[in-house]
């Protein structure tokens, strides 16, 4: 299904020139390949830019918009310390559909649910987003099982589909339109769009195949969570969890945090740091009571939050399907297999 | 410009009242405009030390100051207990939803409190007293371990009886009497004995409970037994909190952010929740 949007194209060999042109507009940050390693950072040479591939290890928007440690208030100074920054624009280049799903979750939490977070709003303004379709999904990818496709459909200024000889550019905003009009592009022809459609169908099929037998579930997980909170599978599946919090740290949709107070050089400060719901003391109360004392309860809570409460509160699954949690897990726990086990325990009982 | 909800406003600590051996009431004069409604809470900062959630216990109609009644249990509360009048504290909030007074209007209101849980109930009680005629019967039940353990002792044992007994029925008890105690002896749940004789229609009656988790649990069961419907029993949920804004995740209980959707919930919303009383 093609939507009515403006789609243009450039020859693929022009990518370097296009990046160089973008750099004239404002600094470009993106997925780069250096010494065969992929990372995210400032693009120094146009030819180190990566368009296709899959998402990188680091969740791109997380640290940018929600830093691991941040001063959120300097108090008793009479100043508000927020919402005053004049944003200097930057381009984020090459992010994938699952990165954008992370962004969507953060938008819902920090921007759309009241009260909005002034620091988030400031930073959110800073970025133009040029995303791209995936071309090589990983064995841990399951994006198309959690409401998105392996190609971006929303939240970008410009989205790129790299085909063999051309790159298609889909416009998603005024700025995106400015780019395709100012930079010499051609209008995509029906046959180009047809090629994109085919490419995307194959891509989605690839992600489906990766998950064949691993993740046989169709949605909705919310119901599964609600019905199967007491499933014995939670206990057995969390057996190898060491509560390191790695999955939450690497997760592009996790947003739990902790505030603490500090005496700065001259003033008192409130600092916000990432926090992890997998830690034993996360929900512990002063008297020693703890609604999620057991590891299994915390493990299950993470799933319930993403797939049930996220749906209740924000109308979405708060999971991007990027599979980073699978990749990072010390106990080799695979979210897809956990769901499978939980679902099977239902059919068995 | 959008407000920074993490920024506390300064307030001067002007008075400290020792309620019991480990509970004190702190009177704070906010240096900027601040108001709240009964049931809402604040995050109170001890500068440089940390912050913790407390429900103001003073009347929301009192515009010059607010009071919080705090039990000493840990890091922040211990630091608070060491403070003398004159220091500056930080206030963030108010957070959470107030008691639904519009729902209470035209109904009996039974208040049941224990220990430091009386704090939000004092704010509620004083609010009800501002517009007494809006409500049917008001019954104030509370208990303490010994007569020495009552907070707001003078009000609960004496002053409020003189001021409000035309409207309010007080049912006060202690777990253990001393030689001077002439009132009831028994757990706070015993103050609910015979309540069904006094309440003619449970459709037009609400119960509001705040206290330690075990007390809330047994009081709730007793209220159900007496005839209350789950949706007419209002409970204060105490959870670990950090932001107060419905974001940081610490206070989550099922799909609810207790700091935002609560902290007061009708029991009907809680009864199927795992670990409600923990
Ligand atoms: C809505 C609500 C209203 C309340 N009202 C009252 C009231 O009116 N009166 C009253 O006495 N109590 C009230 N409480 C309970 C009160 O908030 C706790 O007793 C208080 O938080 C204990 O803080 P503490 O630092 O002294 O205890 P601690 O045991 O030291 O800490 C309590 C919890 O906070 C965490 N914590 C510790 N240090 C920090 C830090 N630096 N930053 C962030 N978190 C930390 C810990 O993990 C621990 O789980 C209320 C609680 C809630 C949720
Ligand atoms: S999860 Fe989907 S969008 Fe993300 S990298 Fe894998 S294929 Fe691409
Ligand atoms: S205290 Fe942060 S979400 Fe409730």
Topology (elements, then pairings):
The complex is a heterodimer of chains A (349) and B (278).
Chain A: E1 7-11, H1 15-25, E2 28-34, E3 37-42, H2 60-65, E4 69-75, E5 90-95, H3 97-112, H4 118-124, E6 127-132, E7 158-162, E8 166-171, H5 174-182, E9 186-187, H6 190-210, H7 221-227, H8 233-237, H9 246-250, E10 257-263, E11 268-274, H10 295-314, H11 324-328, H12 335-348
Parallel strand pairs in A: 2-5, 5-6, 6-7
Antiparallel strand pairs in A: 1-8, 1-9, 2-3, 4-11, 7-8, 10-11
Helix pairs in contact in A: 7-10
Chain B: E1 9-20, E2 23-30, E3 41-46, E4 50-54, E5 66-71, H1 75-81, E6 88-95, H2 101-104, E7 108-114, H3 118-130, E8 138-144, H4 153-164, E9 168-174, E10 184-185, H5 195-198, E11 205-210, H6 213-226, E12 233-236, E13 252-253, E14 256-257, H7 258-261, E15 264-266, H8 267-270
Parallel strand pairs in B: 7-8, 7-11, 8-9, 9-10, 11-12
Antiparallel strand pairs in B: 1-2, 1-6, 2-5, 3-4, 3-6, 12-15, 13-14
The structure holds flavin-adenine dinucleotide, iron/sulfur cluster (SF4) and FE2/S2 (inorganic) cluster.
Care to give the gist of this entry?
With 349 residues, chain A is α/β, with parallel strands linked by helices. Helices cover 36% and strands 18% of the residues of chain A.
Describe this structure in words.
The complex is a heterodimer of chains A (349) and B (278). Chain A is of the alpha/beta class. The two termini of chain A are 40 Å apart. In chain A, helix 7 crosses helix 10 (295-314). Chain A has 12 helices and 11 strands. Chain B is of the alpha/beta class and 278 residues long. Chain B folds into 2 domains: 9-95, Translation factors (Elongation Factor Tu (Ef-tu), domain 3, Beta Barrel), CATH 2.40.30.10; 101-236, Nucleotide-binding domain of ferredoxin-NADP reductase (FNR) module (Rossmann fold). Chain B has 8 helices and 15 strands. In chain B, the strands form 3 sheets. Chain B has a 7-stranded mixed β-sheet with strand order 10-9-8-7-11-12-15, sandwiched between helices. Chain B has a 6-stranded antiparallel β-sheet with strand order 4-3-6-1-2-5. In chain B, strand 3 (41-46) and strand 4 (50-54) form a beta hairpin. The longest helix of chain B has 14 residues, at 213-226. Chains A and B meet through strand 4, strand 10, strand 11 and helix 10 of A and strand 4 and strand 13 of B. Bound molecules: flavin-adenine dinucleotide, iron/sulfur cluster and FE2/S2 (inorganic) cluster (FES).
């Amino acid at each position: 299904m093609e939507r009515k949007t403006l789609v243009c194209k450039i020859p693929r060999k022009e990518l370097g020139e296009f990046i160089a042109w973008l750099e004239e507009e404002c600094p470009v940050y993106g997925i780069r390949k250096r010494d065969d390693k992929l990372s995210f950072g400032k693009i120094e040479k146009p030819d180190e830019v990566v368009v296709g591939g899959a998402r990188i290890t680091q969740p791109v928007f997380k640290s940018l918009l929600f830093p691991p440690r941040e001063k959120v208030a300097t108090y008793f100074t009479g100043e508000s310390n927020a919402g005053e920054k004049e944003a200097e624009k930057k381009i984020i280049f090459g992010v994938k559909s699952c990165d954008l799903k992370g962004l969507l979750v953060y938008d819902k939490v920090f921007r759309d649910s009241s009260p909005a977070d002034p620091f988030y709003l400031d930073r959110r303004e800073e970025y133009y987003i040029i995303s791209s379709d995936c071309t090589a999904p990983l064995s841990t990818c399951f994006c198309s099982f959690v409401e998105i496709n392996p190609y971006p459909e929303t939240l970008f200024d410009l989205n790129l589909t790299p085909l063999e000889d051309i790159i298609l550019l889909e416009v998603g905003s005024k700025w995106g339109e400015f780019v395709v009009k100012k930079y010499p592009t051609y209008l995509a022809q029906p046959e180009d769009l047809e090629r994109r459609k085919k490419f995307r169908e194959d891509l989605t099929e690839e992600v489906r195949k990766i998950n064949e037998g691993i993740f046989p579930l169709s949605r909705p997980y919310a119901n599964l969570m609600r019905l199967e909170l007491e499933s014995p599978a939670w206990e057995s599946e969390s057996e190898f969890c060491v509560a390191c919090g790695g999955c939450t740290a690497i997760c592009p949709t996790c947003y739990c945090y902790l505030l603490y107070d500090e005496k700065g050089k001259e003033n008192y400060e409130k600092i916000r740091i990432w926090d992890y719901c997998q830690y034993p003391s996360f929900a512990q109360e002063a008297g020693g009571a703890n609604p999620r004392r057991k590891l299994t309860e915390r493990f299950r809570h993470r799933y319930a939050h993403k797939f049930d409460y996220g749906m209740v509160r924000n109308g979405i699954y708060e999971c991007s399907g990027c599979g980073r949690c699978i990749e990072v897990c010390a106990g080799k726990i695979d979210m897809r297999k956990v769901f499978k086990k939980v679902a099977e325990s239902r059919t068995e009982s | 410009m959008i407000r920074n909800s993490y920024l506390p406003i300064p307030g001067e600590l002007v008075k400290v009242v020792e309620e019991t051996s480990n509970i004190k009431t702190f009177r704070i004069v906010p240096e900027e405009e601040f108001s709240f409604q009964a049931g809402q809470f604040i995050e109170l900062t001890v500068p440089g030390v940390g912050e913790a959630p407390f429900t103001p216990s003073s009347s929301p109609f009192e515009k010059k100051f607010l009071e919080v009644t705090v039990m000493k249990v840990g890091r922040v509360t211990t630091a608070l207990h060491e403070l003398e009048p004159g220091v500056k504290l930080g206030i963030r909030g108010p957070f959470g939803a107030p008691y639904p007074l519009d729902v209470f209007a035209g109904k009996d209101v039974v208040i049941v409190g224990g220990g430091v849980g009386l704090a939000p109930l004092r704010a509620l009680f004083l609010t009800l007293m501002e517009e007494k005629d809006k409500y049917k019967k008001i019954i104030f039940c509370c208990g303490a371990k010994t007569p020495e353990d009552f907070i707001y002792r003078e009000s609960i044992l004496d002053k409020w009886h003189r001021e409000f007994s035309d409207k309010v029925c007080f049912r006060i008890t202690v777990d253990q009497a001393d030689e001077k105690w002439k009132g009831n002896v028994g757990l706070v749940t015993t103050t609910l004995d015979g309540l069904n004789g006094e309440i003619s229609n449970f459709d037009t009656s609400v119960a509001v409970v705040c206290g330690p988790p075990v007390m809330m649990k047994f009081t709730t069961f007793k209220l159900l037994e007496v005839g209350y419907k789950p949706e007419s029993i209002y409970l204060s949920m105490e959870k670990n909190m950090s932001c107060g804004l419905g974001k940081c995740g610490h206070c989550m209980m099922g799909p609810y952010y207790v700091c935002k959707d609560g902290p007061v919930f009708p029991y009907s919303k809680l009864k199927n929740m795992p670990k409600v009383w923990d």
